[in-house]
Write a structure and sequence with these properties.
Elements (H helix, E strand, L loop, with lengths): L1 H19 L3 H5 L9 H24 L2 E4 L4 H8 L6 H20 L9 E3 L6 E2 H20 L19
Parallel strand pairs: 1-2
Antiparallel strand pairs: 2-3
Helix pairs in contact: 1-5, 1-6, 3-4, 3-5, 3-6
Length: about 160
């Protein structure tokens, strides 16, 4: 999983200084009530890191871990990311993902075919989960760091693990 780890390391290195440079008021701003603020998007990436951390470890220990999904909207609401300091969220995101890079670099190659059910049309292999995680991070960093109108943010598009 060296390529996914390398790509994630590059995303962290490139995004972290840019994220730190964003002012608190911009990160907290909610110009559209039904869209997440930048804080909430980064909070979602922290939740994704946490859930995928569990997948990355458990899928190395067991051939099929069964259903493993989470309620992203509810997780975001319960944690009240809007009330956290932006710099603390940036640091947590960067440190957590740096650990995930370490985990990806040291994954047991024999476990890359192990599976879980993430609610996709087909079970996902550990290889797919790791690569898709990096794609997910890139997608949301583009939302945070781009100048796109929040109304025009594109939604995350799930891929079928069979088409990997």
């Amino acid at each position: 999983m060296e390529s996914a780890a390398t790509e994630l390391r590059g995303l962290i290195a490139g995004a972290t200084p840019r994220l730190r440079s964003l002012p608190e008021d911009r990160a907290s701003g909610k110009p559209v009530a039904d869209k997440w603020s930048l804080k909430e998007i980064l909070g979602h990436l922290i939740d994704s890191a946490s859930n995928n951390h569990q997948r990355f470890v458990r899928m190395q220990l067991q051939q099929d871990i069964g259903v493993f999904s989470y309620q992203q909207g509810e997780w975001n609401a319960v944690q009240k990311y809007q009330l956290e300091r932006w710099q603390d969220l940036v640091d947590l995101w960067a440190f957590y993902n740096t650990h995930l890079v370490h985990l990806m670099e040291h994954v047991d190659p024999a476990s890359l075919g192990h599976t879980c059910d993430m609610g996709y049309p087909n079970p996902a292999t550990l290889k797919f989960v790791m690569e898709d995680y990096v794609r997910h991070v890139r997608h949301h960093l583009d939302q945070i760091l781009g100048d796109m109108d929040p109304q025009k943010r594109t939604r995350w598009v799930r891929r079928d693990p069979k088409e990997q």
